[in-house]
Write a structure and sequence with these properties.
Layout (H helix, E strand, L loop, with lengths): L1 H23 L5 H27 L15
Length: about 70
């Protein structure tokens, strides 16, 4: 559960930063930030699906690009 919260907080921070860049550049930055946001969203969805498949098979799965706070 803690991992899901960390992932959601990180995603919210990334999307907020992309939105701030878009607004700060008077929406010209949307040319870069909108496709980047879509790519990040699709990647997150793919990682979730892969993790669900691994969990269904009884295997452990560690999300890529995650920070290990507790070992």
């Amino acid at each position: 559960v803690l991992l899901w919260v960390a992932i959601l907080v990180l995603a919210a921070i990334v999307f907020a930063a992309l939105w701030i860049i878009t607004v700060a550049t008077l929406f010209v930055g949307a040319v870069v930030t909108f496709p980047l946001g879509v790519i990040i969203g699709i990647a997150a969805l793919v990682f979730i699906i892969v993790a669900a498949i691994k969990a269904n098979e009884g295997e452990r799965y560690r999300y890529p690009f995650t920070l290990r706070f507790i070992k």
